[in-house]
Amino acid sequence: MAQVITSKEIDDVTERTLKAFDVPGIAVAVVKDGKVIHAKGYGVRSLKTMQRVDENTLFGVASNSKAFTSAALGILIDQGKLTWDTRVIDIIPEFRMYNAYVTEEFTVRDLLTHRSGLGLGAGDLMFWPDSSNFTMKDIIHNLRFLKPVSAFRTKYDYDNLLYMVAGEVLERVSGQSWVEFIEERIMKPLEMTQSAGSYERLKDKRNVIDAHGVVNGKVQVIARDLFRFGFSAAGVNSSVADMSKWVIMQMQDGKYGKGQKNRLFSEKVHREMWTPQTILPVNTTPPYNTHFSAYGLGWVLSDVKGYKQISHTGGLAGMVTQVTMLPELQLGIIVFTNQQSGAAFSTITNTIKDSYLGIPATDRVKKNSDAVKAQVAEADSITNSIFTAILSEQKNGSGKVDLKSFTGTYRDDWFGEVIISNIDNRIWFKSLRSPKITGEMFFYKNNTFIVKWNNRSLDADAYVNFQKDENDRPVSIKMKPISPLTDFSFDFQDLDLQRVQK
User: What are 7-16's pLDDT values in tens digits?
Assistant: First the structure.
C-alpha cells in the first residue's frame, strides 16, 4: 500500500479547507486498526467567542444519529422483542400511511430504508426549521396525508419522519425514551462520556460549537436547531473523540472493550445493518470505480477501489458532519464542521481516504472549491434575475395587482393554516404552526409571488403560485423553492394549501 497521509498533511488540508469554504471550525479523527491515530480540532467553535475547536468539542451529528437508531433496534432484536420485519401497526396501532396496503405491510425495516414511496424530505416542514408546535403525535397522524411519489419499496427517497417513527417504536417496545436508551445502552458501554442523545441533555456545554451559516453574503453565527422530538432522526451530540469509539465498535462487528470481550449487538444484526436494502444510483466517476451503491439500515453502502465503504452524512442548520468506514482496511474517518458546507467535509474525508487507497494525490480543496463557486454562482444568477424582475415590476406595473384579492387563510392537511395578509399595501405569508416560516411576498408575474423569509439564515426563499377559480378568485396555493441549493427539508413543493372559507 502507498505511503499513507501523515497528521501534518491532515493538518494542512484541513487548514486550507477552513479558508477555502469559509468554515469557522472543523474536527477530524482517523481510526486505524482499532486505534485513534489522529484526533484534532481546527479553527474556532464560534465566531462570537473565538475559542478553539479540539477533539472533545461537541457538534450536532444530525443524521449520523440514524445509525444509532438502527443499532438500538438491533439490540431489541437480539433480545427477541421484535424483528426487522415486525409490522409497525403491531407496535403503533394508530400508524397510517396514505395507502391502506402500505399501512398494513409497513415494517420496522421499511422505517429505516428510505423506500416508503414518499418524496425526498416529505413532511420535514413539520420539524424544520425548529420552533414549530408540531408533536410526535402530530407526525404519526399526519403521515396519512403525505401523498407518495413512487410505488412502495421501489425507489430511494431520503426521509426523516420515518426515522422519528422508528424512535417511537423503540420507546414503545423498550419502555424507555430514545435518548435514555441510546445513552444507557450504547454511549455508556462505549464510554462516550461527553455525548448525549440531544443537545439539551449534554451534561457539560462549555466546549460546544455554535452553528454558522451564510447570511446576506457573510458567514455568521445563526440559531441552533433545538428540536423537542424526533431525536432518533438527528438528535445525537458528540465529539470526534467519542465518535471514534462508536466507529471502532462498528468495525469490530459490535464488539468493544478490553480484548473485545463485550458485545453491543450480535454479528447477525450487524451484518443486516451493512447489507444493501434499497438500491441507490451509482456514481461511477473516477477515481473510486464504484460498482454499487445502496442504503442499509442507517448506513450508505458502496464500493471504492474494490473495498466496501460504509458511510453517512448529517446536516442541521449551521453544521454538517460525515462518518466514513472502510472495514477491510480497518479505517474510519470522522469529520465534523460548524458551517453548512458539505464540500468541506468531503474534501477532507476523500483526501485521507485517497492516501489509504493508493490514489494519486489531487488538490481536492481547489477542485471542490471551484465546483462550489460555480454552483453558488448559478444559484445566485437564478435568484438575482428573479429579484431584478420584481424590482422592474414594482417600477412599471405593480399598481395593477389587487393584493387584497390574494389575502385569506389557506390550509394544508399536514402543515395546517397559513395566513396571507395585507398590511399597509404589503402582502405577508405567515404559517400558524411554524412561526419561522414567515415573510414578505413580492409580486413576480401572472399569479406568482416570491416569499422572502424574515429569517435570512433559512436561505430558502420560495415561489408562491396562486390558482384561481372561474371568478378569478384565488382558491389554492402551490409552492416550490427558488434556489437549486435550497435544503431538501424545505419541502414546500409538498404543500397543497386550499383557501378556507371564513
Answer: 999 999 999 9
